[in-house]
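LOG
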Amino acid sequence: MLPALTDLAQFRDLLGKAPGPDTAARSEAEARNGQLTKPPGALGRLEDLAIWYAGWRGDARPEIKAPQVIVFAGNHGVTAQGVSAFPAEVTVQMVMNFRHGGAAINQLARAAGARMDVHALELDRPTQDFTQGPAMSGAELLSALQTGWSAVDPQADLLVVGEMGIGNTTPAAAIAHALFGGTAADWTGRGTGVNDAGLANKTRVVAEGVSLHRSRDGLEVLRCLGGRELAAMAGAIAAARQLRIPVILDGFICTAAAATLAAISVDALDHTVAGHQSSEGAHRVLLEKLGKEALLSLGLRLGEGSGAALAINILKSAVACHSGMATFAEAGVSDG
């Protein structure tokens, strides 16, 4: 069982002291990989994924039986600045769609054999407009982190976190800009499809927010420029690390939330892989900043955890090959 989060200093401390992978299990997995009935390296990146997964699960011959997908939803005061092509009411409507099984993420989670949970975070009370002040108070940030922290099933063996929140590519862009510098235009994209004038306005909003809240501290950036669903994703990713549950990161918004953890502790995302590279232009750069190479690049820009959920079956396949294949000795095949 994980401890309840009592304050932000405790969260920061837990992140800094988070457990690493089981080095013995990883070494055993590497040894097993070298004995399987295939030429060395013939399964390419699947081999690396399986060994990585084995290390985090502490099992040289693991299986993936209980993946969990969690979608967090939040609303943003910054939408008052006209940064989205859709109204905030769509967040509530999509939460109902998730709960009724009608969204893309429901189908992808089902196809991957994953349990899916939905957490709506105070949709009737948007965060503050971050061009006017901090998006959240310390207490509000802690509450959102705790929602994510406690949403992770300790019995899960793989985690995907996704989001729904009209306007949330704007805080994601602001977080990336605050953490990694450059210009607001470097990080700001069209999101749900704003036109040229909308993109210029959105870029202005990101620049104003980052100028107002000058910090590169991960938690402070998340508090001032983020949103409740982004904080919940960060809390869930951090909780998974404590439980040694590997995580598949989703698109730009999820990756921005995760980046706030990496700003606190350099190895905070070692238990994560990037599920896909979205069509949001800055996502590729953000992944590069975090040293992550996406498993898929299919032009997705939906959010919801959809790209990461699609990648579950890739990781399942990698682990199935590693754990299920015979060794040369077992198969009676000459290894040369």
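LOG (cont.) second protein
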Amino acid sequence: MAVNYVLVERGNPGDPKAPKKFYAQAKSSGELTLRKLSKEIAEGSTTVSDTDVLAVLNDLTKVLKRHLDDGRIVRFGDFGTFQITVSSDGAETADKFHSSLIKNPKVTFRPGVDLKETLATLKYAKV
């Protein structure tokens, strides 16, 4: 299976006079909801219902949020790792730095071994 992409023409924000270039942008082929994901997981098991799986995935979301709020890195085994990252404007000295300079908080996901292997073997198709 190939990852679909489209071409998007973009200018250089650092140099508005520079000629525009074309860049690849991944094009999704749909989405998978938590409910559909739970049904698919349950289909692979004879002992767990999709309702049970959905309940666990909902609790997983709540627990993940709580631990990220507490500043923890959450490792999901071979799946990957979630962590909050931030960037900030600089201050001339440490004493002049204050938390209002912090911006762009994000939840960063770093894939585990299996997903890294998937990324290394991707094929692409222009749509």
